[in-house]
TrEMBL record:
The keyword Amino-acid biosynthesis applies. One of its GO terms (molecular function) is transcription cis-regulatory region binding. It holds the Pfam family HTH_1. Its main location: cytoplasm. One of its GO terms (cellular component) is cytoplasm. It comes from Thalassolituus pacificus. It is found in: Cytoplasm. This is HTH-type transcriptional regulator MetR.
Length: 305
């Protein structure tokens, strides 16, 4: 009657505190998660948690299953890794390049956890400010690229990670902070601060400005997210950043953020690898650890449906 997915769902519900957050961590819609929990309760004939309580409270039956989850899930995951290593693929190389320059905060914990379980895999990490990483991936110079710009390459497999919203950061006192959303023409009189990469790799140009032929008044480049936020806060420009990367600065009331257009701009972040490597045991485990880490730590992201 019980399934491993049920234990994982209950653990996510406890750790997330709400159905919305649990669904985000499990990469499900809220309705799919609710249906799964209702089906489990009907099978078992007991309620597992008290609905409409804040904070969320589990029944005795729910606590019993949570204890089981805490006992079983770590053992199951370690056994899966051990079996993968026995089957081969326990050593190799994982040289990564990040096109999403705000990804270090969530990617580093995933890398550290991965290193603990795969010590024989050689790991290296860098950013792609100064070169195009996908041709290097095809050549075999690197092994994985974190990107929001998948291209039609027959040799490359793109593993979806999550959807995120690109938002415009503005100074708190900026007139644009009073608008419900930003229109492309609003930026024709603004200095746009961005990372030092080509326009085709920047969400605000690719998905917002370029389709309408709109140009900002001026541009300014910096490699550091913190420097970008400081420049915005001091009124020296505006910047487009992922919602989750900007959230700590919004919480600290350093800057404000507004969506790009009424519907917002929602790119998808991918991990790109060569197709001949995509079934590698250590790569599959890295994908899983990266997904678990980002849905645990990043606010405002959505699963890829």
């Amino acid at each position: 009657m019980l399934d491993i997915k049920h234990l994982r769902t209950l653990a996510a519900l406890r750790d997330g505190g709400t159905l919305v957050e649990a669904a985000r961590r499990m990469h499900l819609t809220q309705s799919a998660l609710s249906h799964q929990l209702k089906d489990l309760e009907e099978r078992l004939g007991v309620s597992l948690f008290l609905r409409k309580t804040k904070p969320l409270r589990f029944t005795r039956a729910g606590l019993e299953l949570l204890q089981l989850a805490d006992d079983v899930l770590p053992l199951l995951r370690q056994s899966e890794r051990n079996l993968q290593k026995m089957a081969g693929g326990h050593s190799g190389r994982l040289h990564m390049v990040i096109e999403c320059h705000s990804c270090f905060d969530w990617l580093m914990p995933a890398i550290n956890s991965f290193r603990d379980h795969w010590p024989e895999v050689e790991i290296d990490l860098s950013t792609s400010f100064h070169f195009e990483p996908i041709p290097a991936l095809i050549r075999g110079d690197i092994d994985l690229v974190v990107t929001s710009d998948p291209g039609p390459h027959n040799e490359i497999y793109y593993q979806p990670l999550f959807r995120y919203q690109s938002v415009l950061a503005v100074a708190n006192q900026h007139p644009l902070a009073q608008q419900d959303c930003i229109q492309p023409t609003d930026l024709s009189s603004e200095t746009l601060i961005h990372y030092p990469v080509g326009r085709n790799r920047l969400d605000i140009f690719e998905h917002f400005l370029s389709p309408g032929g709109i140009e900002p008044l001026a541009t300014r480049q910096t490699e550091l997210t913190l420097m970008m936020v400081q420049l915005v806060a001091s009124g020296r420009g505006v910047a487009c950043l992922p919602n989750w990367a900007l959230q700590p600065y919004i919480d600290a009331k350093l800057v404000s953020a507004r969506p790009l257009g009424k519907e917002g701009v929602w790119p998808t972040l991918y991990a790109a690898v060569r197709k001949d490597q995509q079934d590698s045991a250590y790569l599959q485990d890295f994908f899983q650890q990266a997904l678990e880490t980002c849905f645990r730590h990043l606010p405002g992201i959505l699963p890829v449906s």
